[in-house]
Amino acid sequence: MNESEKRNFILFVVGRMVSLIGSGIQMVAMPLFILDLTGSGTKMGLFATINMVPALILAPFAGVIGDRFNRKKIMVLMDYLRGFIILSLAYLTYINKLNLFVLFSFQVVISLLDSFFGAATSAMIPDLVPEKDLMKANSITESISSASMIIGPVLGGVIYGFWGMQWIFILNGISFILSAISEMFIRYEKTSKLKSHVNAKIILNDLKESILFIFNNDILRNLILLAISLNFLFNPLFVVLLPYTFREIIGFSAQQYGLLETSWTVGILVGNIFLAIFFSKRNPQKLFKNGFYGMIVLNFLIAIMVFPDILAYFGNIWTIFIIVSIILIMMGITNAFVNTPISVYFQQIIPNENRSKIFSALGVIFQAATPVGMLILGILIDHVAVHWLFLAIGILLFIDIFLFSGKISQISFVLPEEE
Q1: pTM value?
Q2: Is residue 287 situated within a structural domain?
Q3: Which stretches of 129-253 are DSSP H helices?
Q4: Which residues form a coiled coil (predicted)?
Q5: Do residues 154 and 250 both lie within one domain?
Q6: Helix or strand or coil: residue 164?
Q7: pLDDT digits (tens, 9 = 90+) for 27-72
Q8: 122: domain CATH number?
């Protein structure tokens, strides 16, 4: 990267880091606040749904906007809007006028703005750095995201406990505004040749083009099928099976389980640091395949760990905690070796004019199987011992990778140039 490209990328990364720390602070405090406000776990679950569904519905349309308008201006505008909306929540909290209906209504708006922001930022990195530096740039970006999501939740629990939700909203709102200020200094011109104009016909045509591009590309289509199947297995494992196993079956404390979840994020951070420093010039295809194999082996290790006889052998709950934490850190590292190279591949093969809308469509498709997997695994937990569920998921992952291994070998990355 030349000096101008480095400057732009640093401003982009700093803006993301500041806003993600603010989001992490609010992310951990919001469920606690809703529980304190209502005492209802159902309402907390409803809030999570409200946070996710509008963004998924709007994502393809936000992608169309991201391809036809200046991505930097979209980023800056979305950050300012989210900042002022969240500061409004702080004011409503201060005057004691914040109720559940207002909170949910504001969250729908914030979720919609998140869609536009995500569509613009996911497509913008290849506009800021040369293609040979994409692996390093994505690794740095993901490292910052992981570090922010470690720092933010830790701060969120402390700040909410001492000063309450008002200061959570204040800090998060300010973080978005600071992020917008940082992004304003990025030197960026609209690179897409598409006209800055949209109507219903254009949106439908662009969505049709996105779907055709995805499913007419044999390798991309198979990668999507692989990603859907992995999300079907992995996301429910982390959201449903892990907390149930280690909180209800093994008996970890809330603090122990919180640290256990953090270990996964620490692994992703470490993996992306390794990618940025040591592996940015390596063949991404080899990293990609080794990451998959590593995830399978480590999943089998967790399955073995939770068998009753093995748990009885280790006995001490802190010994179990340390071993499982190490495994999850290693799984996070292998996850980085899968996700970052595949993000680079998508950035390399998807044309600039279509990047935002295709990335948005991919995001919706990738997440589609997750709720189904959660529902099925939630039902199975009541009828099948958890160690058999871990083992079954490990076997299904192995079959999954075996079936798609030939397709993975067909992926043709643009290899980084030697210095």
Answers
A1: 0.63
A2: yes
A3: 134-163, 165-184, 200-216, 218-236, 242-243
A4: none
A5: no
A6: coil
A7: 767 766 776 777 654 565 566 667 667 777 777 677 777 677 788 8
A8: 1.20.1250.20
Cα distances (Å, whole numbers) of residue 348 to 132, 210, 226, 344:
10, 16, 19, 6
Distance CA(406)–CA(194), nearest Å, equals 36
CA dihedral 78, 84, 85, 89 (to 10 degrees): 150
Place of tokens 């040369």: 130
Q: Report whether 261 contacts 24 (CB < 8 A).
A: no
Name the residue range of residue 226's domain: 215-419
Q: Which residues contact 399 (CB under 8 A, 6 or more apart)?
A: none
Mean pLDDT, to the nearest integer, of 10-23? 81
3-state secondary structure of 292: helix
| The total number of residues written for the chain in this structure | 419
| 3-state class (DSSP) for residue 335 | helix
Eight-state DSSP code of residue 306: T
The one-letter amino acid at 69:
F
What is the phi/psi pair of residue 38, to 5°?
A: -120, -25
113 & 231 share domain: no
The one-letter code for the residue type at 261 is: E
Tokens representing residue 250 in the block: 């093994």
- Write a three-state SS string for 1-55: CCHHHHHHHHHHHHHHHHHHHHHHHHHHHHHHHHHHHHCCHHHHHHHHHHHHHHH
The string of pLDDT tens digits covering residues 292-318 is 788 888 888 888 888 888 888 877 888
